[in-house]
Amino acid sequence: MAGKALYLGPRLKKLRRDLGLTQAIMATDLDISPSYIALMERNQRPVTAEMLLKLATTYRIDVGELADEDADETAKRLQGVLKDPIFADIAIEPLDIEDIATSYPGMAEALLRLHTAFGEEQLALAERQEGSAGATNESSDAPSRTDPVGEARAFLAARRNCFPELDDTAAQAARALDSYEAMRDHLAQQHGLELRLTDDGLLRGALRWHDYHRRRVYIAERLDHTARRFQAALQIAILEQEAPITELVADSRLASDDGKRLVRRALQSYWAAALLMPYRVFKRAAEDLRYDVEALGSRFTVSFEQVAHRLTTLQRPGDEGVPFFFLRVDRAGNVSKRLDGAGFPFARHGGGCPLWNVHRVFDRPAEVDAQLIELPDGERYVSIARMVRGGGGSFGASSVNRAVAITCSANHLGKLVYSDALHDAEPTPIGVACRMCHRPHCVARSAPPMGREIVPSRFRESGVPFDFSVD
């Protein structure tokens, strides 16, 4: 009885090339015509069970080697991409997606790259439109200035800050590099580098220094254990992940060298975090602990900020976690890091709302604050914030206090440990930015909303900074 026919063209071609064979030689080995080999490789003829058996016995391979381990991953990525509203009117069956990923992996990868480029262009367009709204009267023919920070943020946002290829290599390495001591030994054995702790007298304020000539890597002893582990992991990323990171940067649409450098640093840090918190292990723990940021930090021996950052990356197609937006801000409202895996409409230009808990946690150091917030359009979000300290570690060492917040849609509230405190809470009304918020009775307002006329206050004092018409 004839077996089920399979179309394995790209994989058959890869096998032949890996063996260093021409189509004619493979045809002779299998006792078929070269044209039939060509047809199978173009998916115009199936690879039958009989042919699979002949391939296995002739070349002494496991039939499983012909299975494309990346096909399932590609299919999941395609399914995620095809959820984009731009494809809403196209009916594509799941089986068709699997067939494309299996039989036409090149076309699948091309579609994925095009969609990524499309996302980058959309973000760049939004940046230009928002920038032009608040631009000063400059000459129209003045040369445009590339914003490397904006470039880097757009690169990460277009990919939802998720890089499965880096997650995979980090998870594999994590099996052996599960402690600071293991990473120290790895650097010595694989790279001939001695990992040492040292004081600021040698480092001159740096956190880590690779002394190339003495074959040493110095880490500041003033760092706590979680920061030391991260710096060791980051050094391994720099030494061992050059090729995949370079490929990701090369495939990007980054225009400036500074943008490329920032993205490279972000991807190195991504891999280091993935080494300390392997994707599937970390996601399972996050679900078990109901996304308790402090509890996750204790389990993986990492900081609050490292956990919050890692939670934004759990968007692997087919294995997604709760999508979070990440923000780090100082007391003056300056944003030093922003990562969006949740579509949170935080203004790219202008400050955040002072009613948001990311600004009030400075008054309660080391306490986690959970808040239910509501934007003017009625959308509700959960915000988890805490103050974190950067720098310090010794007397006189400069330090800075920042607030870190992660937010997600209130639709996910039931999955979070914070739901116990927020279940019956009234949402705090906040605005993305005062100029874009049309709530009339906000005492925290710093500017009137666009398009509203300030009303005279000769006979009535409203008690709000700007009294404007609501009609």
UniProtKB/TrEMBL annotation:
InterPro entries: Cro/C1-type_HTH, HTH_RamB, IrrE_HExxH, Lambda_DNA-bd_dom_sf, ScfR_C, TransReg_Diox_bact_type
Gene3D superfamilies xref list: lambda repressor-like DNA-binding domains
UniProt xrefs under CDD domains: HTH_XRE
Bias kind Polar residues: ranges: 134-143
Domain HTH cro/C1-type: 12-66
Keyword Ligase: no
Domain of life: Bacteria
PROSITE patterns: HTH_CROC1
Record key words, sorted: DNA-binding, Transcription, Transcription regulation
Pfam families hit by this protein: HTH_3, Peptidase_M78, ScfRs
Chain residue ranges for the region called Disordered: 128-148
Family statement: Belongs to the short-chain fatty acyl-CoA assimilation regulator (ScfR) family.
Protein name as annotated: DUF2083 domain-containing protein
Species per Swiss-Prot/TrEMBL record: Aurantiacibacter sediminis
